Amino acid sequence: MLVVQMKGWGLNLDKKIGQSQGSSIWEFSRNSNSYWNADLRQPYRYARITPAEPKDGQVVEVVLLQSPSSPEHEWVAKGQGEARGYEG
Question: Which residues have C-beta within 8 Å of that of residue 28, sequence separation ≥ 6?
């Protein structure tokens, strides 16, 4: 589990499902988080976290994805947050 504290909100990530090119893909905790696109038709359920193996307290970059294989033009950059609770 990884928690990312953003400015004004937090993101709970349950499961790391992949890693590539210095970033990791995580699945949201579905009980804790939801993020919907503008037309409310498709939820975002995954996050790309950079760096892939953050240390507790490290600043990470957060990008939301609809699926692990979403094309880059569908990504939603959410900015930086502080990683908490990652145990590798």
Answer: 11, 12, 13, 14, 34, 35, 44, 45, 46, 47
Question: pLDDT per residue over 39-52, tens digit each?
Answer: 657 788 899 999 99
DSSP assignment of the chain: -EEEEETTEEEEEEEEEEEETTEEEEEE-TTT--EE-TTSSSEE-EEEEESSSPPTT-EEEEEEESSTT--GGG-EEEEEEEEES---
| pTM for this predicted structure | 0.86
